[in-house]
Amino acid sequence: MTGMKITTKKLALCAVLTALALGLSTLENLFPISLVVPLPGVKLGLANIVTVFALYELGAPSALVILVARCLLGSLFAGNASALIFSLLGGFTAMLVMIALKQLPVLSIYGVSIGGAAAHNIGQMGAAIITLGNTMVLGYLPFLLAVSLFTGALTGFVSGLLFRAMKNINLSH
Amino acid sequence: MTSRQSPKLKPSPWDAIVVAAVIALGVFVTVVFYGGKSADHDLKCVVSAGSKTVDTIALRDAAKAPIARTYQGNGYTLHMTVTADGVCVSESDCPSQDCVHTGTITRSGQSIVCLPAQIVIHLEGTANSGPDVIVG
Predict the structure, then answer these.
(1) Which CATH architecture is the domain B44-124 placed in?
(2) pLDDT of amino acid B43
């Protein structure tokens, strides 16, 4: 069980990353790209930068904890319980795909991030079908997938910058 | 924190496989969803709230004058305008306003979705046409 041991430093880092993800989500809501691309649920996914970073830096279990905490707190702060199913389903699908893609050493952070962004949209589409009880929303999926190529690449780029900047910082000690 | 694994920071040619997979999925859904759809002739607008169809309006009925309808869902109100050429949500008090920003839909298979109000407006037709593209 040594692998599961949570140090105070790791716990603090998880909390800071959760707060950062919440902050990025709030920031993103102030500048909705749906004004430019009028598709329901379309987002830049800035909080995904934190998820990608946590996945590589802390591993899948911690990244998953941060994701769930971000979704629950985000929904609580926004006072929008119906948004919870969208963020959780989207987040879980993205996380599963990124964990799988991360196992392929030939892929860069861009490939993992693009796969995660596309999976996030697929998960949210599933949530929309469950919520609306209507499969007509599937018509938006091709456009959301097209947008995810851009947003995934952006997330990968910013995460890459973050890893480069942190090259000389060791968070594990 | 032994789980640290440094990612490849530069794009790899193998990333193209992920991009290709996403594009292939998008094309597949487009073909399945829009491929066999009828279009542009005898269009009718189908309004659904949840899984229930609440209204159906033939666009030809709006040939002489636009038809305005109001729907309520989940505490929000949508004002829909039907003309002979298409359908749009002219006004809504939902927070996202995605339904209003979608603009006018004119082709079979297209839909306007208001997630906060949980209302879907969908166009159906009777003749065959190819896939439709709303956003490039």
Answers:
(1) Sandwich (2.60)
(2) 87
Distance from CA of B108 to the nearest CA of A (A): 11
Q: Which domains are assigned to chain A?
A: 2-165 (1.10.1760.20)
Cβ contacts of B101 on chain A, cutoff 8 Å:
34-35, 38
* Best residue of B5, B18, B37 to probe chain A, by most A CBs closer than 10 Å: B18
Nearest residue of B to residue A13, measured between CA atoms: B1
The C-alpha of B62 sits at a distance from chain A's nearest C-alpha, in angstroms, of 24
pLDDT profile of chain B (136 residues), mean per 10: 69 93 94 69 86 89 90 91 92 87 86 88 69 51
Domain boundaries, chain B: 44-124
Q: A25 vs A170, which has greater pLDDT?
A: A25
Residue B131 CA to residue A124 CA, distance in Å, equals 23
Per-residue pLDDT tens for A29-67?
A: 777 776 777 777 677 888 889 999 999 988 999 999 999
Full DSSP string of B25-88: HHHHHHHHHHTT-B-SSS-EEEEEETTEEEEEEEGGGGSSS-EEEEEEETTEEEEEEE-SS-EE
What lies within 8 Å, CB to CB, of A87 at 6+ separation is: A70, A71, A74, A75
Q: Is the dihedral of CA A105, A107, A113, A119 positive or negative?
A: negative
Q: Binning pLDDT at 50, 70 and 90, where does residue A114 land?
A: very high
Q: Is residue A172 pLDDT above 70, yes or no?
A: no
**C-alpha closest to that of B25 among B37, B17, B15:** B17
Kindly determine whether residue B113 and residue A164, on different chains, have CB atoms separated by under 8 Å. no
Contact B32, A125 (CB under 8 A): no
Out of A111, A137, A171, whose CB is closest to B120? Answer: A137
Contact criterion met (CB < 8 Å) for A145 and B9: no
